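can u do me a favor
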């Protein structure tokens, strides 16, 4: 899960991309397309990295189970396993007046990127 920004915190408008290229003007579709291509490729790399992270976590948990411990320590790293819980309630489970009184709401911006025309990036073709 991704961290959500603090309420009322707004990001500054982008004037330069993280790669140093100037941000696209509204009428410069070629520059915008380049930024979106970079974003799309970065999303593929992020997904690949997530798979690797999950694989490593699975291997570490298996080792913890094998050793019968919840902490592993090496010369360079320490991993500890703990249980975390969260309590929640469904809107359908509460009377409307209780929901209205106690419901907490947060608003955040979501950007969704998808490729048009079914074109595969080089990174996607490799997988």
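np, heres the sequence
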């Amino acid at each position: 899960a991704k961290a959500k920004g603090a309420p009322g915190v707004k990001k500054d408008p982008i004037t330069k991309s993280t790669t140093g290229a100037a941000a696209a003007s509204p009428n410069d579709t070629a520059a915008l397309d380049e930024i979106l291509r970079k974003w799309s490729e970065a999303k593929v790399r992020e997904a690949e990295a997530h798979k690797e992270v999950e694989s490593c976590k699975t291997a570490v948990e298996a080792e913890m189970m094998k050793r019968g411990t919840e902490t592993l320590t090496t010369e360079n790293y320490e991993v500890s396993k703990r249980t975390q819980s969260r309590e929640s309630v469904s809107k359908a489970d509460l009377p409307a007046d209780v929901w209205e009184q106690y419901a907490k709401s947060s608003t955040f911006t979501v950007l969704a990127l998808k490729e048009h025309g079914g074109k595969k990036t080089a990174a996607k073709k490799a997988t």
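The longest strand covers residues 71-73. hope that helps!!
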